[in-house]
Amino acid sequence: MEINYEEQNIENAQGSGKPQRFVRLRHRRALTVEEIENRIEQSTTLTRADVRGVLAELRRVIVDSLCEGRRFHLQGIGYLSLSAGLALPEERKEATVTGKDIYLRGINFLPEEKLLNTIKKQVSFHKSDCPSKSITYTAEELWPKVESYLSSHQYLTTRIMREEFVLGKNKALEWLTKWVEDGHLTKQGTHHLPIYFRKPD
After folding, report:
1. Coiled coil located at which positions (predicted)?
2. Going from the N-terminus, what domains does the chain have, and what CATH number goes with each?
3. Fewer CB near the terminus (10 Å): N or C of the chain?
4. Is the separation of the CB atoms in 190 and 148 below 8 Å?
5. Beta-carbon neighbour count of residue 166 at 10 Å?
6. 12-58 pLDDT tens trace
């Protein structure tokens, strides 16, 4: 199974004056729930309704387990666990940390070694024949992309801007600063690790 990739550069990476090379995989669209149900139905004795019920119950158990502070282990697949961050503003950096200062950063996934090895044996990579080019964004082009990202993620950082939208460090910081000044984002975190949240409408 081949996965297409593109080779790209971040100019003046980390202020070194040298470009940083990296590859970006060109993922195909995710399978729909209906497609997942069909695939499982075709290879097992379960009906689509059975599969739908199992998936719904699995989701409930995952949510309950993570909210109880547990890691969730799905045998043969891997582990899910929560990651949290600390968002203390500069004026409170020496203050006692409370639960209100902690936010959910995301959900970590750690695959089982057997799953990872199985995929390694089956996957290969092919350079895309139609690579996308890095572009210079206008505000009208970039902000909708950022809004879309924030609809499913809690915050932005300079690193996220660089990786998600292929921007240099200085340009990413320029955009974030502009959106704070324009009232689109609020800046929290620390001086060395600022975190940017969507400002409520």
Report:
1. none
2. 2-82+108-127 (4.10.520), 139-198 (1.10.10.10)
3. C
4. no
5. 21
6. 555 666 777 778 787 788 888 999 999 999 999 999 999 999 999 99
